[in-house]
Amino acid sequence: MGIFVNRQTLSSSEQLTSLIKCRDVAESMGYAVEFIFPVDIKKIPKLDCLFIRANTDPMNTTYVASRMAGLYGIPVIDDPNSIRVCADKINMYMHLIKHSVSIPRTRFVSKHEINSEHVETLFRDLGSPLVLKEPSTSFSVRVEKVSNILDFLKVAKRFLRLSDWIVVQEYIESRFDWRIGVLNNELLYACRYIIPSETFKIQASVNGHIVYCDVECVPANKVPPTVIELGIEAGKAIGNGLYGVDIKERDGKLYVIEVNDNPSLEGGEDAYYPDVFRRIINHLMNGDRLSRGIGLSGNFYLYDMGGVYSLDTMIDLDNGDKLLEEDIYSYKIDF
């Protein structure tokens, strides 16, 4: 078994402790374990499975490692499709929309629509404040809350340096997010991320200092069944891998905020779930072929403000389902 790591993975004692725990569990199950660094990527074809424990992104070596495992038929978490979808917020939300998963009211806004009149319409339709997200964001970076047209235009201008599109959502106020860990369409763990009082995000820079959420692991029998069901439903919309699904509740209704591949396992998420690593390893070693990396479509899909999927602007809604069978959506971003 290979565990793919990089220098950033080893940057904290919590991450290192989690990696050692994973290795020890695998060895107790009779498997040899090797830590694979980016310079060791040529070793991947000789592995029986690969568990990626480094920040995943289609633009870095973790994606290369995942793709290499897929090409050699080696079971891998995270698989290339999951990385590609979850690294692109529009891609991810389109999967959730297609599978009728509950999310906040959402608009995908192109750079050509960023003007005062259209922004005024967004505030009228979605309320105030609004949450703006740059599509390639992770760890709550480039996620900001705005309450007026001027702030919207300022934030959008910054985000549009990285993407031709931004995600605009209604603001769902809450003091915690449910984090539902899902593996192979089953509950893996559950916890609450307690949002710091200084911000509305689980991680933020406040007065030059990074503030983090507190993690409160919750036993499965203490989690509302509807929360677990929604987490599993959201995971299924992406694939059958390992996901961390963030869910908010407002007025008795649940909303999926994000589906994250490569979810954190070092913050105490598994306090009531001692078999987390054993289940992941079993899935990698004994899972079916759906856990293996698979090839990617080269097609690019767009989703317009009216809710219509299109391929190179030529797919209409009536025949869209036939063309979306692979559940691969993306759009071009100028980095």
Query: Could you name the CATH homologous superfamily of the largest domain?
Result: ATP-grasp fold, B domain
Number of strands: 17
The poorly predicted ranges are: 288-335
Shape: globular
Order of helices and strands: EHEEHEHHEHEEHEEEEEEHEEHEEH
- In round numbers, the mean pLDDT is 83
Neighbour order of strands in the largest sheet: 13-10-9-14-15
Radius of gyration (CA) equals 20 Å
Q: And the CATH topology of the largest domain?
A: D-amino Acid Aminotransferase, Chain A, domain 1
In whole angstroms, how far apart are the ends?
Answer: 34 Å
The proportion of strand residues reads 15-25%
Q: Structural class given helices, strands, pairing? A: alpha+beta
Biggest sheet statistics: 5 strands, antiparallel
Helix content range:
25-40%
Whole-number total of structural domains: 4
Number of helices: 9
